[in-house]
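Hey,
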Amino acid sequence: NRYIHHCYDVIIFCLNTLTNVVETSDSQQVIAGLEFVEPEPIIMTSSDVAYTNDFGGGSSKKVPAVKWLSRWLVSQTESYRDAVMKGKFGAKEEPNHRIIDEKAVVSEPEHQRDLEKHEEEFLVTAGNGFILLTCLMRHRGQCYSDEIDEAVQKLRKSVVSQMPQQTGVTLMIKTLKAFCNFYHFSIGDLSVAVVEPVMKLIVELEKI
């Protein structure tokens, strides 16, 4: 996470490009079969201090690319996850701000808070990533087949397996709603180009 600030624009560009590829081609079968070679980090010691070498260097293992991406995207929600899961994250009373999740209930006042400045990039990254995952997990009627259905089910299983325990796709849904709130509050009515398509994806995600 400490490296994300330095390559934030590149990450968003890559996520959006992959989303466009998924939406304009029959790529779910290919993506379902992709694997990522994940290096095992080495626990190194210096005097009395142990630390992890994030660049790997030990043995490596292959993991499904979607599973790895899902796990990484979940890690981007770490600092604000409780607020997203338990309340109207980012909900404001300003007239130009729309509360996306009208049915959300805030059980404790401390869960109704705004993004900290350093969390904005993490929310936008997770939001764009969850948009990609949702596109991978949904059926598109015009290209439905048994093979694609099998690929979609495999992708869904990979994604859900990396979500916080027993939450299914709830974290994705709530993060995407917070993502929409953030865009709407940041750029007002201009956000419709982003918010409306994402809200349609949320509806599909809620059916999974």
